[in-house]
Structure formats: structure tokens, C-alpha cells
Amino acid sequence: MRTFLYILTFMSVIGLAFWAYHENYKTQEALADVQDLRRDIGAHRERLAVLRAEWAFLNRPERLRDLAELNFPRLELMPFLPEQFGRVDQISYPAPPIIEFTDPIDLSSEGGQRP
Amino acid sequence: MIRTPLRPLARILEARQKGENPDAIERENLRIRHEQMRDTARVRAEGRLLVLGVAFFCAFAITGARMATLAASEPAEPRAHTQGASIVSSRADIVDRKGRILATNMDTYSLYAHPQQMIEPERAAQALAGIFPDLDEARLLRDFTGNRKFVWVRKKLSPEQKQAVHDIGEPGLLFGPREMRLYPNGTLAAHVMGGTRFGQEGVHSAEVVGSAGIERYFDALLRDPAREGAPLALSLDLTVQAAVERVLASGMMLMNAKGAAAVLMDVHTGEVVSIASLPTFDPNDRPMPPVTGSPADSPLFNRAVQGVYELGSTFKIFTAAQAMDLGLVAPETQIDTKPPMRVGGFNIGEFRNKNYGTLSIEEIIIHSSNRGTAKLALQIGNERQQDFLRKLGFFEPTPVEITEAQGGQPLLPKTWTDLSSVTISYGHGLSSSPLHLAAGYSAIANGGYAVKPTLLRQPGPQYGPRVMSERAAERSRVMLRKVVTEGTASFGEVKGYQVGGKTGTADKPRERGGGYYDDKVIATFATIFPAHAPEYVLVVTLDEPVDTMGEKPRRTAGWTAVPVAAEMIGRIAPLLGLRPDYGVPDPIHLASD
């Protein structure tokens, strides 16, 4: 009985050691993954900051103004002026589509027949 | 263990036979036994002490070794921590009220050299001088071939420059990562941004420290890692600021002024939507402060905040508003403005020695009568006038969040005599910044509440204490409107926006004392728009303007600052989302036409 217990303990120690060994490697791998992800996030964040800075640089008012002036013949962009405000009733909305009644009598009588 | 008996029978019997005391044997044996016991105890104690000593030694050695490695190694982020948010170490961005970037960071590289690792110092020095024309080749060579172990070459490199240096192929030239501050809009709002410089510098990183403006005022906040990179939102509006600067620059050029400033402020929240001072500079490459000449002539000088000027007749409305608030007068009250008028031994004169006769309060403002305002000031009295101006903020530097604001300490008379009171009533003898004036006009515009100018975005109206009654403020606004429709600021009319305002033309005091210049003025136009329900206050100040388009050079604000302000309002009001109101056309009137 005692021998059996010894063997059992010994085997479980080997099993646990084996398990711990594997867990250790898995943890190392997960940590490495996390580190890679962190590095990626950092790189992306940096890239985002650069893109934002570039966007801001390309959209600086001075440049847009110069571009508007350069492309004036084509785009005819002017500074926003008070005269450009309008009222809703000044807008000419597209005319509502004309519904063509091909058989008006048929249609009106159809409704009457239904309950 | 075999225990030795204390009284061994054999020895006792032997001792008895010899007639000796057998107790001596027992004592002797007891002594031996005690000695043995003591020896074993000592050995054990010594062993324990040794173990303890070794344990302590190990503990201290491990702690010491760990401390040494921590101190000697580069800091690294912990690999395993569960917390999701990561620390963002870079300086926070600054954005405008709509989230557009005003200041951000860029990664770049610094260049340094380890001369002892250099292979061809002469060639490296020559090549570096070729890449950076501002570097001195002889000096570089001296640094590279001397005893120095470390030389900073450049603090910032562009990617092209970095590649060019890389192509030299010199192993002694090394790059260190740097974070630099970038202002993508260049000179836009330069005086608000201020600028940055490098603080503590190492090879692997350098501190970016604000050196002026809001960068310096909020330095600790911007560098706080706990913000996690959340940007600082200002009250400025990028497009409005650009339009203001553009119009101001062309106005300054047309009016041949040497400087100009403009402040646009929300009258309810105190938010400064735009603040400009010309000439300006590029915060990406902040110039050094001048060592000679007047600091006020440097582009670094913020005329809108630091520049304290006598702002002239723009102050008259405060006098009128206070007199009406105190119930001393009504807009229709008649005041005799005929000469002569002497206060404290000085003659109080009018512009071009005009004589307006008897005027109502309204007409005093419309025609900008000095004597009329002076009489109001005498009625109000010293104490009450001081109290009123103090409440409007004219006694303190403006609380706006840039370091330069502290430099804008208004210049007050040392002793407030009747004469001071009279001259201050029409804007002389008290120097304040255009921003002070904008804050003062805001109180009239928002119905009588003092507001504090701020550069940070506000969630809603930020009214301070009431400084005048709603009625007095409303009557003052009517007067300001009439100045534009009937008075000195007729060029200020912008169709649809009911501009109200007051002009001010103040002679510049001579720098070395002794009176005023005859041909140098500060022309100011302080406006509120739309006058019936004001949203914004705009103050435009031109330094030494002269309009040479007419026959005679004209310097008054009505000819210089007013047209510039009107053009500005026409440009910025639509951008601010203000809808022009042309009034409802009367159908009957139209039919009769």
C-alpha cells in the first residue's frame, strides 16, 4: 500500500512538473504576444498621430486659401459671405412627380367595391 | 548519551574512607556537567547565528543587487499587467473648439556624435557642414578631434536630413529619438500657442517644455500622463481665427499701421473665439526675444493681451452706462458741452476744438464729446467710477490662460484726482489692453454681467456679478448702435448684422515722457453685434495707422479701424453661424414703391 502511495505521489509530481513546464511556455508565449500587440498599438498610435498632424498640416487655412485661389477658374470658391444665407422658401425644390392616371374611373370604383 | 552520575558510588566510598567530603565530588561533577551543557548550547547558538547571518546577508545582497540593476538598467514597461489603459507619455494635443488640431507632436531624431568611435572625423565634419549649412565645419572638426566623448550636433532632424547623415556612413554619428512639438497651422494663433523648447535632454528622449503662451501656462497639465493624451480644447475657432488674421493683416497694410490687434469674444461665456496680434511669428521656430529696442516692437509681443494702451473714446460708453445705471441721467438728458471747461487747472478740449453746444447723452456718445463725458464723470465721482471700472476688470491683468496675460497690468493713475476721473471717462490716463476692453464691452452686451475672458471652451454662459442694470445696458447698446448709424463709425455698418460700437482715437504717449505725439495714434473700434441681442464683441486696434487715400492723411479710428472691423464682421459673422437679419420687408411699403 505504501509503495503504491509512493508511486502515485511520484507520478503526480512528474505530471505536475510537466503541466507547469507547459504552462510556463504558454505564459511566455502569451506575454510575447501581448508585447507584440502593445508594440503594434504603439506604432499605430504613432502613425495615427502622424496622419492627424499631416491632415492638419494639409488642411491649414493658409494652404486651403491658396488652393482655392489657384483653382478659382474651375471651382469658383469664394469666402463665405452674409449674402449667401437663404431662407427655406427661396429654395426651388424639384417639382413633385406627376402621377399619370391611366384609368381614373377604374381606380375610384375599385375602392368602393371593397369592404 | 551515557549520563555520568553526580555521586558515583565508587568514588564516594573511596572518599569516605579517606575522610574527605563526598559533596565535593558531587559539586565537581555538577560543574563538569554544567560546562558541557553550556558548550553544547553555545555551539547551537553559534550555528543559529551563522544561519541567521547568512540569511540576512543573502537578503541584503539580493535587495542590493536588485537596486543596482534597477538603477543601472533602462526602464521598461512591465510586460504582464492586467490594466487595459496604457500610459501615454507624449504631450497632449491642443485643439480648437471644434476639435481641429492647433498643436501636436511629431517623432523626429536628434543627432549626436561619439568622437572616439569616429573613423574619419574630418570627412564627417565636412559632410555634416554640407548637409547643415548653419553648422561651422571648423568647430565641428575641433569637437570631433578633441578630447570630448560626446557632442550634440542637432536637436531636430527632418527625415531627409536623417537619411543624408545616415549616408555618410560614419559609425560615430548616432541618432536619438525625439518628440517635437508641431504647430501645423504655422503662424495661426501664434501668440496663444506661444511655443516649446527642450527641457532635460537625454540620448533616448527629451522633455518638451512650454516656453510661452498657453503651452507654458498649462505645461504641467499638458504633460500629465494621467490625461492619457486627451487633447486640451480651446475656445478658439480655427476658421474664424484665420479670417480675422487675414483681414487684420490686409487692414494693417492698407492703413500703413505698424501693428494691429483684434479680439473676438463671446459675450455670454467669455470665450475668446479669436485673438490676433500682428506682426506675428511662427511658433514652430520661435524667435529669440530681442535684446535691443523696445520689446513692444518684437513679433513676440502680444498686443491684444500685453499691449496696454490708452484706448480713447471707446471708454465713453462706460461713463454713460454708469451714469444711466446710477439714475443720474437718461439718454435724453441735455448736457451743456460748450467751452470753456477747466478741471484741476487743465482745459478739457474736444477733437479739433469743436463746439457741440448742448447735447443729449445719446448725442454725446454719437459725436464723441469729451466735455460731455467729462461732466458725467464729475457727476459720478471718483469713488464710484473706480469701483465700476474695477468690477469690469480694468484694475487687474486679464485672467486669460496664457503666461503673457500677467504682463498686461493696466496702468492706472497714482492718485485718482478729479482730473484723472475726467480724462479716464474719455479713455485717457488709464492704459489697458484690447482684451480688457472686450471684457468691458461684454458686460454691456450681455445685459450687465461681468464676464472673465477665457481661452478654454465653456459649456455655457459664465456670468459673473452684475455690474449694471439690464436697462442701462440696453440703453447703452442703443447708443452704440446709433454711433454706427448716425455717428463717427458710419463705415462700420455691415448689412444684416446691426453692428453697434464706439470708436476711439488716442494720441500715443512719447516713450520718454513729455506729452503725446501729434502724428501717432492708437485707433480702436470696439463693436458688439448684432446690437439688439449681442452675441459677440469685437475689438480692433491699429497701432499708428494712417489712411493716405484721401487728400489729407487721416488717422481717426472712423477712417482706419472701423472699415477694417466692418470687413472683419462681414467675413466672420457667417462663419460664426450668425444669420443676417435684414428686417422683415413691409409688404405695403413695397407695394407703394
From TrEMBL, chain A:
- The record lists the membrane-crossing segments as 5-22
User: Which UniProt keywords are given for this protein, alphabetically ordered?
Assistant: Membrane, Transmembrane, Transmembrane helix
UniProt-recorded name of the protein? Cell division protein FtsL
Organism expressing this protein natively: Roseivivax lentus
TrEMBL record, chain B:
* One record GO biological process: cell wall organization
Q: What GO MF terms are annotated?
A: carboxypeptidase activity; penicillin binding
Q: Does the keyword Ribosomal protein apply?
A: no
Cellular component per GO, a single term = plasma membrane
**Where can this protein be found?**
Membrane
> Which part of the chain is the Penicillin-binding protein transpeptidase domain?
261-549
Q: Indicate where this protein is primarily found.
A: membrane
Q: Does the keyword Glycoprotein apply?
A: no
Q: Which InterPro entries match?
A: Beta-lactam/transpept (IPR050515), Beta-lactam/transpept-like (IPR012338), PBP_dimer (IPR005311), PBP_dimer_sf (IPR036138), PCN-bd_Tpept (IPR001460)
Listed name of the protein: Cell division protein FtsI (Penicillin-binding protein 3)
